[in-house]
Design brief:
Layout: E1 7-8, H1 9-17, E2 23-25, E3 37-48, E4 58-68, H2 74-85, E5 93-97, E6 102-113
Parallel strand pairs: 1-6, 2-3
Antiparallel strand pairs: 3-4, 4-6, 5-6
Length: 121
């Protein structure tokens, strides 16, 4: 089995910010809710690393959600290319938010993180 190289959370955030749309960890910020395109991401799975260095102790799975006014939005296509260029090939799913007349595209990414570092506590 080939070992997969994982990006860090910092690298993930940097990649998402390069897309030049509002990015929020967790729920969208009130002033971003009506943007044509936006990205939200959050963690939903932690897996302990039993043999790790001092920098990382967990593989954390994040959902990356891209909300747009149309399918195959520019942000979604740029995100796909950026992840592909880094060697990640996520399975991207889509749902239509009928009442909001929006498209929600989403996928998961595993990253290395030290969850024991307290941030904003």
């Amino acid at each position: 089995m080939q070992e997969e190289k994982l990006m860090s959370k910092e690298e993930l955030i940097e990649l998402l910010k390069e897309l030049d749309v509002p990015v929020s960890e967790g729920p969208p910020k009130d002033d971003n809710i009506e943007e044509n395109e936006r990205i939200n991401f959050w963690d939903y799975n932690w897996e302990d690393l039993m043999a790790s260095g001092e920098n990382y102790n967990t593989i954390v799975t994040y959902q990356i959600s891209i909300i747009a006014n149309k399918p195959r939005s520019a942000t979604l296509l740029k995100a796909k290319k950026k992840f592909n260029d880094k060697g990640y090939h996520p399975r991207i799913q889509h749902e239509h938010l009928i009442e909001q007349r929006r498209v929600h595209s989403f996928f998961s990414i595993d990253v290395l993180e030290n969850i024991e570092v307290l941030e904003n506590v």
